[in-house]
Specification:
Helices cover 57% and strands 4% of the residues. It is mainly alpha-helical. β1 and β2 form a beta hairpin. The longest helix is centred in the first third of the chain and has 22 residues. It is globular, with a radius of gyration of 26 Å.
């Protein structure tokens, strides 16, 4: 008796519950990212075939459909190439699970897995100079409760190099405000790391704790909204956007630039690099798995490259400008 192939719905539920959550113990951010990608794909395919999502099968997710979906992301949802590639990575991961669970779908899976990533020019990492960072840190009005929270949060990003997901997950119990002062950050891939806390950040956090009447033994969020709820990454992004708009009025070099919470993370790394901190230490500080990721900061530091050129003593020799002498070549050059 032949085995009945699982439906697309059964496969999706099994993939998230058994593979991602139970077996891989993926982070909530990973699960949400994969969920969003596959949800968009299911909606797109259902609309193309004019059927209900629950009636779709694995065979409906063939190579041409996936390629049309990827084009849809760029042309109609205006996703950048990097987002397009991230969506494709989620689809690939799901299809690999399909091949394991349903060998009969191997042909469809192989055609989808053969879809290559789209190449794109990686932008140079953006960061703030020390002067620009000081301007931004002075924007929040520390005479108000919200201003004190905003100042402490900006300091937290600038001094720890935390990701926005790590900052909003920090609880009071994760921070030690007595020597040695440090914070436990819950990073990507369930990798925790301890990071020292600078003196000015310690002072800001102590004031925040006293104002909210919490201690380092309380398992409550450090950064909360006006209603007392844990700040979301979208709330943090909106707050920084407001701070940057004000900072741009005080410093013209900030105007027109896209500055996000991740820009502050880059800023921490670049300031450490420019101060002579070892690249491997910066990798540990930021929680990078590979040193190749941290190496991008060296590529972005033009001043470091310029100093290296000056120290090497290399001077470009002066050369006489080429003069055309042949009459025919001169005619061609002057066309």
């Amino acid at each position: 008796m032949s085995k009945v192939s699982p439906t697309l719905g059964d496969m999706l539920e099994s993939y998230f519950r058994r593979r991602l959550i139970t077996q891989q113990r993926a982070s909530i951010e990973t699960i949400r990212g994969y969920r969003d990608a596959l949800r968009l794909l299911v909606i797109f395919v259902a609309e193309q075939l004019q059927t209900a999502p629950e009636r779709l099968s694995i065979q409906d997710l063939d190579r041409d459909v996936i390629l049309a979906f990827l084009d849809h992301l760029e042309d109609f949802r205006h996703n950048c190439v990097r987002t397009r590639n991230n969506r494709l990575a989620a689809i690939r991961a799901f299809m690999q699970y399909v091949a394991y669970m349903d060998p009969g779908a191997l042909g469809v899976v192989q055609r989808v897995l053969a879809i290559p990533n789209k190449k794109y020019v990686k932008p140079i990492l953006g960061y703030l100079t020390r002067e620009e960072l000081d301007v931004l840190l002075n924007v929040p009005d520390q005479a108000t409760r919200q201003g004190r929270r905003d100042h402490a949060l900006l300091l937290f990003f600038a001094r720890t190099g935390a990701r926005v997901s790590e900052a909003v997950r920090v609880n009071a119990v994760d921070i030690c405000l007595n020597s040695p002062c440090q914070v436990l950050l819950h990073g990507k891939g369930m990798r925790d790391r301890s990071t020292p806390v600078a003196t000015d950040l310690v002072a800001a956090l102590r004031s925040l704790y006293e104002e909210r009447r919490i201690t380092t033994s309380d398992n409550v969020p450090v950064f909360v909204s006006a209603t007392g709820q844990r700040l979301t990454r979208y709330g943090v992004t909106h707050m920084i956007r407001r701070m940057v708009a004000t900072a741009a009025e005080r410093n013209s070099s900030i105007a027109g630039r896209k500055i996000t919470p991740h820009t502050l993370r880059h800023t921490t790394a670049m300031h450490m690099l420019q101060s002579g901190v070892d690249l491997n230490m910066i990798r540990c500080w930021l929680g990078h798995v590979s040193l190749d990721t941290t190496h991008h900061y060296i590529e972005a530091d033009v001043e470091m490259k310029r100093r290296a050129l000056e120290q090497s003593g290399v001077v470009a020799p002066r050369q006489a400008r080429y003069q055309q002498t042949d009459r025919i070549l001169t005619i061609l050059e002057n066309l």
